[in-house]
Each structure stands twice: as C-alpha cells, then as structure tokens.
Amino acid sequence: MVLVPVYSASEKLEPPPLLSPFFFKPEPSELPPLGKWLTAECPARIDVSGGWSDTPPITYEHGGAVTMVALLVNGKKPVGARVKRIPELKLVFVIINNGVESSRVVCEELHDLEDYNQPYASGALLKATFICGGIIDLESSQSLSEQLQTNYGGGFEIQSWSNLPLGSGMGTSSILSAALIGVILRAAGKSCDRMGIIHLELYVEQMMTTGGGWQDQVGGICGGIHIGLSEGETTCVYTSSRPERKTRLARNLLQDVVRNWYARNPLIVETEDNLVALAQECSHAFIDGDLKKVGSCLDRYWQMKKIMAPGCETQIITTLMEAVRPFALGICMAGAGGGGFMYVLAQDPLKRCYQTTHTNSKGS
C-alpha cells in the first residue's frame, strides 16, 4: 500500500501548490525520439460500492472508500491517448471519436492555453494536463515556443479518444485525463508512479472546476478489482487489490450533494457512513468469492445512490430492473447520478444469456 497526501480538510476545495512534493513527484527520464508515438490505453470502470465518498470535500473530511471493477468494452480498452514530439514549436491537440478526427486545436502562444479552466473550451482537458503537470508554465517570462525549444527541443502532438458514449457513468473523462497525464509526462522526459498520476488527475479536475472524485482514475489505472480508501481528517488516498481485514458527474449534481454535506443533512451524513462501510463489505465479499454477497452490495448501493441523487431512477430504469430481477444476484447503475449503463450480476451464464435477450426486448 502507498500513502500519498493530497489536501487538508481545512483547505476545502482549494487545491495545494501545483508541484507539492507531498503528492506529485515527477522524476527526470530520457526524452523519446522525435516522431515516436507513446500510447496509453485504459479500461473503463464501474463503481460497485461506495461512490460519493470519494468526492472532495467529503473524501477528506469524512473519509471515503470505493470498491470498483475495471472492464473491457467489446473486448477492448475503450479509452486512450498517444503523444509524439514534433519539430514544430507548438502544441497540437487532436480529439478522435469513433476512429475519426472530430476536432483539432493548435496552440502557438501562451494565451491559447489560458482557457484550460473552462471545461467546455476546445481541448480544455489536454491544456489543463500540460499546465497542471508543469510541462508549460503560464506565468513564465518565456513564450510558449521558447519553453518548448529550451525544455523539450520541439513541440507535441497529442491524440485522445474514447469509445464510450457520453454519460456512460464509467469514468471516461477522468480515466482519459489519467491516460493523458501518463503519456504527456513521458513524452516530456518525466516519469511518475501511478499514485502520483491519480492525485495529479484529481488536481486537474479541481483546476478545471469540474470537481469529481478519485474513484475513476483509480479504477482505470489500477485495473482489476480494487478498493480505494481515503482517511478523513488526514489527507491520504491509497488503494489495494486485496484489501486488508481492516476497517464524471454533472457539476450541478455534485454541487447539490456538497451543499447538503456542508449543511450536515442528517440523511446525507448517515448515507456517507453507510457507503464507506458497504465498500469495505463488498471488497471482502470479492476476496471470499461470495458473489451473492457482492450482489446484495450492488442492490443496497443502488438504494444509497438514490438517496444521494434523488430522481436518478427513471421509469425506464425501473422497468429494466424489474425485467432482469429474476435472473440477477444484484443490479446497479454506473456513475454518481445513476444515469449511465446498467450492470447486472447474473446468477449463472445461461441466465445471463437469457437476461441479455430479455433486456433487449424490454429496452426496445
């Protein structure tokens, strides 16, 4: 297990210094050759217990625990990025959708990067990665081209993609950000362990003003089945693929939950306690191979999500859940608001096949 400090509870939503040695310590490494692509691909993830407890400021005031499972989609890792050094002194950001270039952003001056903290600006996530990762300094007296020439001997072309639909609830934006951080740092002659990437991604989201917690990048970077934990009143996040026997969501939705937390709404506070306990129970069920217990955790988790985000269960979702209930050990919806994919733990493979056909007929 690795302990890495992040934010103190007293700081609320204010992030720490950019290159704080407490959470992000890049090491120098050799620059790759010009024109060589560096690629990172990541799985999606589903949260199976504990979501909402990883969200600042809740996670460092109360403490959080999330059990999550990394997934391939249609047999492939759906999220990725690649970077290469180029001789031109500029940054080229290319966003790919379904294998086709959908947008291209070229930055040749520092002011081209200044909208990195506006989530809907073109290439905002890629710009924020360069700024928050310390690759480019907006406050420098050097121009963008001078920084690129002096520090890296050229510019960068970055391509990013996701094969998941918008609103999937499977952590797309945070996982993509983590993939970008990994390859951009490496292309810039820097390296960082995965815990540093996890924390830097959390910082990127805070700087972009989108908020969000740490579960997505933990699931996408660590892979497999993990529990992520943060300790309240201290300032650390750590992960374990075999937990010890111890004890991108919409901004408006996030703000509503945070307001209720600051008001110490008794139901929200109680639910946060229950979320953390349930995540630990679910992780132990995975260790024991007790799929019935895992299914029970899924069902209880969905009830807790409905408390945190009232109205997230629409009539269509209710109908689908009722249709597959006879064949399921447990059912939940991905993402904080429950608006993404539905995932079902089937009782056995044959029932899974029938369940898929039955659900498709209901969904149509």
Automatic annotation (TrEMBL):
Its EC number is 2.7.1.52. The keyword Chloroplast does not apply. The chain crosses the membrane at residues 327-346. GO terms for molecular function: ATP binding; fucokinase activity. InterPro entries: GHMP_Kinase-Related, GHMP_kinase_C_dom, GHMP_kinase_C_sf, GHMP_kinase_N_dom, Ribosomal_Su5_D2-typ_SF. Keywords: ATP-binding, Kinase, Membrane, Nucleotide-binding, Transferase, Transmembrane, Transmembrane helix. Residues 147-224 form the GHMP kinase N-terminal domain. One of its GO terms (biological process) is GDP-L-fucose salvage. Residues 285-349 form the GHMP kinase C-terminal domain. PANTHER family: L-FUCOSE KINASE. This is FUK. It comes from Mytilus edulis. The lineage of its organism: Eukaryota, Metazoa, Spiralia, Lophotrochozoa, Mollusca.
